[in-house]
Amino acid sequence: MKRINLLLPFTHGVDMRAIEQALLLAKGRQATLVPLALIHVPEERRAKGARLEHVQQSKDFLEAVEHKAARYAVPIERFEVFTGDVVQSINTIASDLECEGILLFVGRNDGILLQASEIKHLMETTTGRLYILRLQTGDGESVTQKLLKGFSRWLSSRKQRARLAPAQESSEEEVTFPMGTR
């Protein structure tokens, strides 16, 4: 059986939610996740080399993926590339490793793990499959937290109505019938 590879490119902003979702997708597909840390070095900066903070973010990303992958028992194959053209490097590596697809994460207004411009360029130039996953961003509140908060408000209003109900004794009872029946 041929091994399935899913490419997870990265240029900035380590996001644990995106990493976790990528690992869960790879696990569900029984695939190898290929985290690719790209360090952009513009032509005019080649003599000076890459910026130290970009190198450090790259290392942090690869370590985070490795740590989470061990926890989820997902095989990975790590790569770190210094490049002048991020999109071309992503396409080349995806082709060379015969990746089934490239995982791209987007938020409300920006890319996650990649710049929005890099994602747009990939969408325009990539001939392979792209998996575009949208993650909620913004207020930092998880779905669980929102549900708990909503349930708490509902419960409070219900308790308040229960306390008021004995004071509002009424002999009339409202009955609602579905349309067309009596």
Q: How many β-strand stretches?
A: 6
What is the number of domains?
A: 1
Helicity, as a percent range? 40-55%
Shape: elongated
What amount of the residues lies in strands? 15-25%
CATH fold label = Rossmann fold
The low-confidence parts are: 170-177
Q: Residue-averaged pLDDT, rounded?
A: 85
Which CATH top level class fits? Alpha Beta
**How many DSSP H or I helices?**
5
Alpha-carbon Rg, integer: 25 Å
H-E string = EHEHEHEEHEH
Q: Structural class, judged by helices and strands?
A: alpha/beta
CATH architecture: 3-Layer(aba) Sandwich
| Measured distance between first and last alpha carbons | 64 Å
* Biggest sheet character: 6 strands, mixed
What's a quick, concise take on this entry?
The protein contains 5 helices and 6 strands, in the order βαβαβαββαβα. The chain is α/β, with parallel strands linked by helices and about 180 residues long.
Overview of the structural elements:
The protein has 182 residues and is α/β, with parallel strands linked by helices. The chain has one domain: HUPs (Rossmann fold, 3-Layer(aba) Sandwich), CATH 3.40.50. The protein has 5 helices and 6 strands; from the N terminus they run βαβαβαββαβα. Strands 1, 2, 3, 4, 5 and 6 form a 6-stranded mixed β-sheet that branches. The longest helix is centred in the C-terminal third of the chain and has 22 residues. The protein is elongated, with a radius of gyration of 25 Å.
Q: Which key phrases capture this entry?
A:
Rossmann fold, 5 helices, six-stranded mixed sheet, elongated, single chain, 6 strands, alpha/beta, 182 residues
